[in-house]
Amino acid sequence: MSEFAAETRAVDSACWQALRRHAERLGSVPLRALLAEGDVRVERLHCAAGPWHADFSKQRIDESSLAALLALARAAGIEGRRDQLFAGERVNVTEDRAALHVALRGSADPGIQVEGVDVADDIAGSFAKLGEFVEAVRAGRITGYSGRPLRHIVNLGIGGSDLGPRMAVRALRAHSLPELRLHFVANLDGADLASTLAHCPAAETLVIVASKTFTTQETLANARSVRAWLEQAVTAAGLPAGVATNQFASVTANLDRAREFGIPDACIFPFRDWVGGRYSLWSSVGLPLALAIGMNGFAQLLAGAAAIDHHFRSAPLEANLPVWLALIDIWNLDFLGAESHAMLPYSDSLALLPAYLQQLEMESNGKSVRADGTPVGCPTAPVIWGEAGTVGQHSFYQLLHQGGRLIPCDFIAFAEADFDLPGHHDALLAHCLAQSAALALGKTLAEATSELSAAGHDPATVARLAPHKVFPGNQPSTTLIAHRLTAESLGALIALHEHKVFVQAAIWGLNPFDQWGVEYGKVLAARLLPQVAAGRTDPIEDASTRAAIAIIAALRARRRS
Amino acid sequence: MSEFAAETRAVDSACWQALRRHAERLGSVPLRALLAEGDVRVERLHCAAGPWHADFSKQRIDESSLAALLALARAAGIEGRRDQLFAGERVNVTEDRAALHVALRGSADPGIQVEGVDVADDIAGSFAKLGEFVEAVRAGRITGYSGRPLRHIVNLGIGGSDLGPRMAVRALRAHSLPELRLHFVANLDGADLASTLAHCPAAETLVIVASKTFTTQETLANARSVRAWLEQAVTAAGLPAGVATNQFASVTANLDRAREFGIPDACIFPFRDWVGGRYSLWSSVGLPLALAIGMNGFAQLLAGAAAIDHHFRSAPLEANLPVWLALIDIWNLDFLGAESHAMLPYSDSLALLPAYLQQLEMESNGKSVRADGTPVGCPTAPVIWGEAGTVGQHSFYQLLHQGGRLIPCDFIAFAEADFDLPGHHDALLAHCLAQSAALALGKTLAEATSELSAAGHDPATVARLAPHKVFPGNQPSTTLIAHRLTAESLGALIALHEHKVFVQAAIWGLNPFDQWGVEYGKVLAARLLPQVAAGRTDPIEDASTRAAIAIIAALRARRRS
Lengths: 561, 561
Description:
The structure is a homodimer.
Chain A: H1 2-6, H2 14-26, H3 31-35, H4 39-44, E1 46-49, E2 52-55, H5 63-75, H6 78-86, H7 101-104, E3 113-114, E4 117-118, H8 119-138, E5 152-156, H9 163-171, E6 181-185, H10 190-197, E7 205-210, H11 217-236, E8 248-252, H12 255-261, E9 268-270, H13 287-314, H14 321-335, E10 340-345, H15 353-365, E11 383-385, H16 397-402, E12 409-414, H17 425-441, H18 445-454, H19 459-465, E13 477-482, H20 487-508, H21 519-534, H22 543-560
Parallel strand pairs in A: 5-6, 5-7, 7-8, 8-9, 10-11, 10-12, 12-13
Antiparallel strand pairs in A: 1-2, 2-13, 3-4
């Protein structure tokens, strides 16, 4: 704890002041002017790691401001923090524990022990148990109550127990076992579960209850409802109630509760205290993904992440991709004033990546207080949002081009398609490159005017329309390119972002591994539940909440009368 | 055109200056203090329309600032603009045409003609044709090449031809014909189509090609690929090629092109010039929804919207819900400085609403130039984002609570569930109410400290943890409540937002019905396509684009070698 508290706040450092001056100097230099430097700039602002190539030349930086950013990272002691992470130190200081997701891909230092257990041994054991189960389900050796193989997998989990496997299963659908259907149910709203079960034959459905504590309200409510559904189906088939027990599995740290729920030990897979929910895809939480792509595929995901771990540990800051990603974001957020960051994968299979990164970044670094309890003093994580290209082009890109807001964008593309239909992929790539160019370079009034004139419009029409065809440009972006979307390149992509978040947290002085901000609402909800259920407003202090409960009760009564 | 151009810019008006003073005055008054006023405030800041109740008491306004906002709306001539819209005037000034989506729900003035055709007659004819087709498909009277009924519907469309029906089909899944499976394919990326067709039996699949111009690149690429897939299946079945012609339908304004593609006239449904893509759910673009819920359900959707049209036209500004929604946003964006707006439906069926509103708001008002070509002079549309509750609570809510960014939120809830599983819905509602209360009221350091002490922690732990358990609060939100998610309440909800966007545009002086900002990237992409396909960089001026093409070519070559 003390090591973190002792350090100077980033905003009070000399580096920070230097960066402010760079931002002032560059404020009036448009990207169009920066890009006019040509190949030299592009080469200098290229950075690669594992299968990924990143182009930062469309960011509003130059060599000297980049050098100042790298100095900031060095002054924040990034290298030391990184070594603490990989050494299994208790970097999650507010919760006083290690964050060992890197150990799950074999990247932590050897010999790390937690409560007397060797972490590497523990992981190997878990992986072996998971592998046996995964291959048995895939091969159809585990059957449901009617004797048919389990072909529908319903994952019950929320947050970190949902977003990772959900995103990755979609991302790797080209590599998945076609006869397995994967479903994800997260919401407390019964509509999520009910509409999913409508497409699942009970006798062929495997249910995974993924909850670290086995007490997560959403997951447990869904687990109870699904158990009732399964019991009803079993009874309707004239079979004894216990016959579908092996249609449940669990990923949890709370064995006792899982057993109490009726899940056999052979189907309970560990979720350790030293893995945070939003960093848990690499653990047994990845079970749905492993079922979809098999253990070899899952191992490739881990290997892709491990390659980035190695890069992060060994590359100098000047050529360290997660460090660059972190610094460019800090530049855009704290020096240029961006409030949000658009993630734009030009890959339909990666459509859920923005939602995944939303949790990773906003829950990790959406904080204003440093690990030592003092204020950070500058803006931290942005709003992460976005959609797959080209879909977003027909929706919100209008605002990116002409809305007048500074919104840094990350474009993500693959040289080759995961599903190769003739005539689709080259056009997709052309759009990706065209958008980042248009956002950066813009189009001036003179250019718009001459284009309209050249198209034969009369002068009045030209004058009327030209202002609407001006693009201010100067919208910064990073483009990430890999060969193909595979388990390996996906693992690398996620690990890049995990380490990016870690570097940012280190600079801001935050603990990226806690999430105290989610507790208050939960406590309040538990307190309000009996009032909502009874339509009673009396012991509630807040008039707005009271009014809402009264409206709900009145609407329900109108229906009943 | 002149009427719009002649007016004073909002930012130059006396109202605007008055609002700046209100914002300054209220800047130091926290929501906790405002809400302490109790029931009086809540009653005063309640506004209802059709089935919807809205509570604005958790916005950072008071009565006098609200009065100033209403004065701004009046000064902008909202009432006159509104009448122009309903009278079918050419409110889409830059494209010189009317915006008659309100006519599709029977709300426009009678007798409106476009190019000599009575719009109401035209709509009635289209509705009848659509209805016949819809009921024939639903009843299984239209069959595929093997004689089996069409049970899989694949909608090919993007932007406005996709987001509306996709969102509404999910929203109304509780009211849908269970034997029909609706699929939506939008992306140019072949992965979207290929992964969808993997679950569609060719002989039972109806394909809808939805494109106003029948030239949209994404939709046509997908249409050609799906035709090849269907022809292959027909050939494999030993049948003649033309046998699956009636498995295609189209929603388009370009009849000739649709016919050329091979779609029979009986299956072509009109998409008129006077309907904008993002306002087109009410037209034949709603075909997938009509197939799912039937024509009676579709008529209820229209009726729900019509009720809001009536409200918008007749309620005084002081009790006009779309006007309030618009003004509160302008307050948050232009006076408090918010950059984004979170849409948080506590309804899993409404999970796609944020994506729908993203297009509606960001494409309509993501502009900086007034209809008359002059600069707006203030920020316009925000980034719209969000996820269904409770899902987002386990992801980005950390940032809403403790990230230190001002992010107005809209909570949307229903008194009763659309899928009623025991134990789910009351808890869902309790979370919705708890979150808006926690965001508004926050928790002070003194409160956090005394809670930790009461829980028995030692003083050192209390002091260490308390700063992490502080919630600054003061995060504004609106809560919208209706009885139940039905076609009617959905239609009303969408119409509320359409009119909200219209009011904002009128105040900012924008034309919400054009989207010039999407053109530039398209043109550039067409120019880059041959280069990407050939891996040639030579005639490209921008070094960054050149480098990307070279990387793509190198990655592809490595694979081939």
